[in-house]
Automatic annotation (TrEMBL), chain A:
InterPro entries reported for this sequence: Beta-grasp_dom_sf, MOCS2A, Mopterin_synth/thiamin_S_b, ThiS/MoaD-like
One of the record's GO molecular function terms: nucleotide binding
Keyword hit for Transcription: no
GO BP term (any one): Mo-molybdopterin cofactor biosynthetic process
Family that this chain belongs to: Belongs to the MoaD family.
A GO term from the CC aspect: molybdopterin adenylyltransferase complex
Record key words, sorted: Nucleotide-binding
Protein name stated in the entry: Molybdopterin synthase sulfur carrier subunit
Origin species: Aquitalea palustris
Domain of life of the organism encoding this protein: Bacteria
Any Pfam family the entry gives: ThiS
From TrEMBL, chain B:
GO cellular component: cytosol
Annotated InterPro entries: ThiF/MoeB/HesA (IPR045886), ThiF_NAD_FAD-bd (IPR000594), Ubiquitin-activating_enz (IPR035985)
Lineage summary: Bacteria, Pseudomonadati, Pseudomonadota, Betaproteobacteria, Neisseriales
Family: Belongs to the HesA/MoeB/ThiF family.
Annotated signal sequence range: none
Source organism: Aquitalea palustris
Subunit structure: Homodimer. Forms a stable heterotetrameric complex of 2 MoeB and 2 MoaD during adenylation of MoaD.
Broad enzyme group: transferase
The name this protein goes by in its record: Molybdopterin-synthase adenylyltransferase
Amino acid sequence: MKLNMVYFARLKDSFGTGQESLETDATSVAELLVELRLRGGNWATELGHGKTFRVACNQELAGPDSALRDGDEVAIFPPVTGG
Amino acid sequence: MTDLNDAALLRYSRHILLPEIDIEGQQRLAASRVLVIGAGGLGSPVALYLASAGVGHITLADDDVVELSNLQRQVVHDMASLGLNKAESARARMLALNPDIAVRALGERLSADRLLAEARQHDLLLDCSDNFATRHAVNRASVAAGVPLVSGAAVRLAGQLAVFDPRVAGSPCYHCLFAEEGEVSDGPCATFGVLSPLVGVIGSLQAVEAVKLLAGRQAVLGRLTLYDALSGDFRQMKFTRDPACPVCAAA
């Protein structure tokens, strides 16, 4: 299935892209994150355990067990803390 | 409720013309007490707009001193402010804009105890700070004191905005959105750079939410607004209370 991925703030800079269309077999948020970490480099670092970020599925915050469906928009964003 | 004199009716006439605010809303603003944490990039538009909008009692807390590199975006300060405490500098500008309001400047970094004591003396908190630890401390004070919080954040080309109101049963807090544990690595503007008007956009949105809340309108809760200055996109994400939240679930 295909997911519309969106990355925000520091993750957008770090991944070098703000959005992508992703062909995947991941059926949950947790599986998707495993797949993205396997890309290595900044993907493994930024999405590693101990890093603070949230995932939203179709503009609603999602937990690791949240199911993914074809065509979903999946957003990953860190807290912005400056000011 | 505070009566508005002729000069006040003229000064606030463009508010009073709005049916959503009207005289009653303006009187509520005049009677309101607001605590602003941080008088930097976000705190600048917040301080200026809350003062000009006629919020009657404003407390500003910031332990930092105005430097030349702040003036690129911290528009409440100017060349004459260099070397002065930011809260004091902002206070002078706010009173020059509107002498009918009361402004307290706290030139200190508030401890958790002081933050809670101050929160209890105010109707609304505005988080205009520049670090994750302070954001969580302000959130804890908001929940413990039962005082609503308008949270804004901005660095580089990205901003975030959310409103929290612990008076509304079952509504989420900042900790429900971003847990405190874990690495953030998104430091202050000093390290990463920040687009000058980005803090104006987010700080102005904070001021909008604050004025609406103080005028008696209920804010939309459980909604995080994300702004990307490069693409010009605004996105909104819905979130709910974390049933296991160590800050608000037990409150």
